[in-house]
Design a protein that fits this description.
It contains six helices and no strands. The chain is mostly helical. It has one domain.
């Protein structure tokens, strides 16, 4: 377990690649569930009902996996799905756990400018991590992977905002 946690931290620091993970459906399922549950904590303050927050978290994580699956299908490299998806879910989990105290700080009368700046930096770093994973998954040059990471970030925000009426 400690080795997996260290792997996900190293992934967030761009030290390892998604193909370094074992291809385990069970590990993907666990990281997906944990990602959704931590996402529930992140969204919980915004949504009035826990069921709505859970649904939003589930759809957000699922959107990422569906998009990845579709892109892998188009490139005819579906065999890379489990490792790449697990890398995305695990790194997302680490980033969400880092974001939690920042959101609490911003929401509890803390220094909103500092918390907001740190959250913005965390979002930017998440795009770099996404690009790192995409780069290795699809064998892309880094600038193209960053472009796809930005494109996906805007796409997912637009979809989620449309579904859940986020302004």
């Amino acid at each position: 377990m400690k080795a997996l946690i260290n792997y996900f931290f190293d992934l967030c620091l761009l030290r390892v690649k998604p193909q370094d993970l074992p291809a385990s459906q069970a590990l993907l399922s666990i990281t997906f569930i944990l990602n959704v549950l931590v996402g529930l904590l992140l969204i919980g303050d915004v949504r009035p009902h826990p069921a709505a927050a859970l649904l939003e978290s589930f759809i957000g994580a699922s959107l990422l996996l569906i998009t990845l699956k579709g892109m892998l299908y188009l490139r005819q490299i579906e065999a890379r799905f489990i490792q790449s998806a697990t890398a995305l879910m695990g790194s997302g989990l680490i980033l969400s756990l880092i974001a939690l105290p920042l959101l609490v700080l911003a929401g509890n009368g803390g220094e909103p400018t500092l918390a907001g700046t740190l959250l913005l930096l965390l979002v930017m770093w998440s795009i770099i991590i996404l690009a790192h994973i995409l780069r290795h998954t699809f064998t892309l040059p880094l600038p193209l992977a960053i472009s796809f990471g930005l494109l996906y970030t805007f796409f997912s925000y637009a979809v989620m905002a449309n579904i859940f009426q986020v302004s």
